[in-house]
């Protein structure tokens, strides 16, 4: 009985795996067949759907923006024009102080120069006295000349009488000779007095030249005395003070270095493409892209706006793009260094869209400010305006014409924030009103069929 039960249990154990295996085979036969997928009939390639935008005319000014830094218009180093000891120094003569033109800075000991002025004044007075004494001598000698002339006239009359009497044998020959001797002596005395006057007048000229030399030295001494009083030649800030009170300075020694702030400059750089637009506006390049007789090395004097953000307010100054800095491209940046001149750095104004904030004083343009320079350029002819998405690599613009894709090439496009500007002369087929494709395409073939997306 027990063996029969054991045989039944073993048979049951073998039947379970067989049942599972049979169930698996049955399920595979029922659910494991690949479903039938109907094949679609390919009717040929379908034209892609694209978005388009119209080419518009652009007549406004182009704004070229460059970054720059404010620098002094010039720096002046005051040097001692005379030697001496610093006896006085103004309290504001310190680095960082602001001074106006002709403000007092330093004084060099004036004692030696005051004494030199007094000495030369005495010499000048002595020269005047010497000239006056000679003038008196000339007057006296001229009076003696008048007397000598009268004496000569008398002697000539006496000689004439003796000659008449000699012919009548009334006087001797010796008496005639005596008369001639007296007449000759009077003539000699008159000539001597005349020679003396000539000599005195020559002496007067010599004394006058000596007086003029003394006068020149006196003027120089007075200038040296004025140079002991050192003032600021410009309005600006003191960069560095190189001497202190009681220092001895030699002639030519540096004293103070100042930075002029009555005018400022902006140091910036322009790209060659930006210069291209400036040359076009100024007429240096003609519409057919050829250079005019004016040299390309000349930077057009162009009004600009200098902007600086301060406490959420945009401060602005009027400036002029004035000159190149250097003589070519910068080797590292491949840009052209330029200077913008700001003639009134204290005349600040705010942008029209800047918020009004009470209690905030707008600053003047100061050295070291990082600013934005905006250069307006007015194109000589209306330009073509495209969306930025319409410009593709290689200067390609895809144009939709009669359901076909046409490829137009543009040269030197101007890429703005929300538009691409193209000069009409820089493209052959692109025109105002053309529909340009702004959606991407994986593969582009000239003349391929495309469908314009219907606006929703």
Instruction: Determine the CATH superfamily of the largest domain.
Output: Efflux pump adaptor protein, beta barrel domain
CATH class annotation of the largest domain: Mainly Beta
Overall form: elongated
Name the average pLDDT.
83
- Could you spell the SSE succession in H and E letters? HEEEEEEEEHHEEEEEHEEEEEEEEEEEEE
Tell how many strands the DSSP assignment holds: 26
Label the structural class.
alpha+beta
- Low-confidence runs (pLDDT<50, min 5 residues)? none
Radius of gyration: 53 Å
How would a crystallographer describe the biggest sheet? 6 strands, antiparallel, barrel
The first-to-last residue Cα distance is: 89 Å
Can you describe what's shown?
The strands form six sheets. Strands 4-13-16-15-14-18 form a six-stranded antiparallel beta barrel. The chain is 33% helix and 28% strand. The two termini are 89 Å apart. It is built from four helices and 26 strands. Helix 2 (111-167) runs antiparallel to helix 3 (173-226). It folds into four domains: 50-59 and 383-452, conserved putative lor/sdh protein from methanococcus maripaludis s2 fold, CATH 2.40.420.20; 62-71 and 263-377, Elongation Factor Tu (Ef-tu), domain 3 (Beta Barrel); 75-109 and 228-260, OB fold (Dihydrolipoamide Acetyltransferase, E2P) (Beta Barrel); 112-226, Helix Hairpins (Orthogonal Bundle). Strand 23 (414-415) and strand 24 form a beta hairpin. The protein is elongated, with a radius of gyration of 53 Å. The mean pLDDT is 83. By secondary structure, it is α+β, with helices and mostly antiparallel strands.
């Amino acid at each position: 009985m027990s063996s029969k039960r054991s045989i039944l249990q073993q048979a049951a154990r073998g039947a379970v795996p067989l049942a599972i295996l049979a169930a698996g085979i049955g399920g595979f036969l029922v659910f494991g067949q690949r479903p039938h997928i109907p094949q679609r009939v390919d009717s040929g390639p379908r034209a892609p759907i694209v978005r388009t935008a119209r080419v518009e005319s652009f007549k406004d000014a182009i704004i070229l923006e460059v970054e720059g830094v404010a620098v002094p218009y010039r720096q002046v180093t005051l040097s001692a024009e005379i030697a001496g000891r610093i006896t006085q120094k103004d309290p504001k003569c310190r680095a960082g102080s602001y001074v106006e033109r002709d403000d007092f800075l330093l004084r060099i000991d004036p004692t030696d120069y005051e004494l030199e002025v007094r000495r030369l004044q005495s010499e000048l007075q002595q020269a005047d006295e010497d000239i006056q004494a000679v003038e008196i001598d000339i007057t006296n000698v001229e009076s003696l000349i008048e007397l000598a002339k009268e004496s000569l006239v008398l002697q000539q009359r006496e000689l004439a009488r003796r000659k008449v009497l000699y012919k009548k044998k009334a006087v001797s020959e010796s008496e005639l000779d005596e008369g001639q001797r007296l007449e000759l002596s009077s003539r000699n005395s008159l000539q001597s007095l005349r020679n003396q006057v000539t000599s005195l007048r020559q002496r007067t000229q010599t004394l006058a030249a000596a007086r003029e030399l003394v006068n020149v030295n006196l003027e120089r001494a007075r200038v040296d005395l004025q140079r002991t009083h050192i003032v600021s030649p410009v309005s600006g800030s003191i960069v560095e003070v190189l001497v202190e009170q009681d220092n001895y300075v030699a002639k030519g020694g540096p004293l103070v270095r100042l930075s002029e702030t009555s005018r400022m400059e902006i140091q910036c750089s322009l790209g060659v493409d930006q210069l291209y637009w400036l040359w076009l506006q100024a007429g240096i390049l003609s519409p057919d892209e050829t250079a005019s007789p004016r040299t390309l090395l000349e930077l057009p004097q162009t009004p600009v706006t200098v902007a600086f953000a301060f406490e959420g307010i945009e401060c602005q100054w009027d400036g002029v793009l004035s000159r190149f800095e250097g003589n070519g491209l910068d080797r590292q940046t491949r840009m052209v260094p330029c200077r913008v001149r700001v003639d009134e750095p204290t005349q600040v104004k705010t942008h029209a869209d800047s918020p009004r904030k009470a209690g905030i004083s707008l600053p003047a343009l100061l050295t070291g400010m990082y600013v934005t320079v905006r250069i307006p350029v007015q194109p000589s002819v209306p330009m073509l305006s495209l969306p930025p998405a319409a410009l593709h690599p290689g200067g390609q613009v895809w144009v939709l014409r009669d359901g076909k894709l046409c490829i137009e090439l543009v040269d030197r496009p101007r890429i703005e924030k929300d538009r691409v500007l193209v000069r009409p002369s820089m493209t052959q087929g692109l025109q105002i009103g053309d529909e340009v494709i702004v959606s991407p395409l994986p593969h582009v073939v000239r003349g391929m069929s495309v469908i314009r997306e219907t606006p929703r």
